[in-house]
Amino acid sequence: MKVPRQRSIASIAKLLIVALTLSNMAFAESKPITAAAVHERIFKRGVDRWIYVKEDNDIVLVGRITSIGVRSFNMRVQDESQPTEVFYNDVIDVRTGIGHKGLISFGIFAAAGIGTSVALAVHFQNESNKLLQPPTHP
After folding, report:
1. Which DSSP string do the residues of the chain spell out, in sequence order?
2. Which of 87, 63, 60 shows the shortest CA–CA distance to 73?
3. Taking residues 9-18, what's their average pLDDT?
4. CB atoms within 10 A of CB 89
5. Which of 8, 13, 72, 83 could in theory staple to 87 by disulfide, Cβ–Cβ 3.0 to 4.6 A?
6. CB atoms within 10 A of CB 38
7. Radius of gyration of the chain from Cα atoms?
8. What string of DSSP letters covers 8-20?
9. 35-95: CATH, from 2.40.320.10, 3.40.30.10, 2.30.30.100, 3.30.110.40
10. What digits encode the pLDDT tens for the residues 85-113?
């Protein structure tokens, strides 16, 4: 027979399992990005900074921005000696850092880890402070 304290620990564990499972679900599809928005984000990022770009033909480029122009920008992709020119109209996704979704996921995992640690500490503290009782026979 479970005591109320064990039931609460079991329910906390089930809640953490559900929370961790839901945090891995896919987020909604991002909105299409315009050429002006791409230019603005790259200009804010600045020259000689790392960036992730996905083009409309499913080519993914990761590298450093070398120059920023009116219609395009150049970036030095990893493992290539010459800069690659990328037109703003061809870009469908730009990532410049960890982003909002990454911070939310990190926060969820940090809270779950801290909660689990506290629950385990309380559980083991209560287990070690129990008084020894002789077994009862029915």
Report:
1. ---HHHHHHHHHHHHHHHHHHHHTSPPPPPPP--HHHHHHHHHHH-TT-EEEEEETTS-EEEEEEEEE-SSEEEEEETT-SS-EEEEGGGEEEEE-SSHHHHHHHHHHHHHHHHHHHHHHHHHHHHHHTPPP-PPP--
2. 87
3. 79
4. 13
5. 72
6. 21
7. 26
8. HHHHHHHHHHHHH
9. 2.30.30.100
10. 999 999 998 888 766 777 788 889 999 99
- Write down the pLDDT at residue 4: 64
Token duo for residue 19: 């929370």
**What sign has the CA pseudo-torsion 44, 47, 48, 54?**
positive
Strand partners for 76: 64
User: One-letter amino acid identity for 75?
Assistant: M
- CA atoms of 20 and 107, how far apart (whole Å): 11
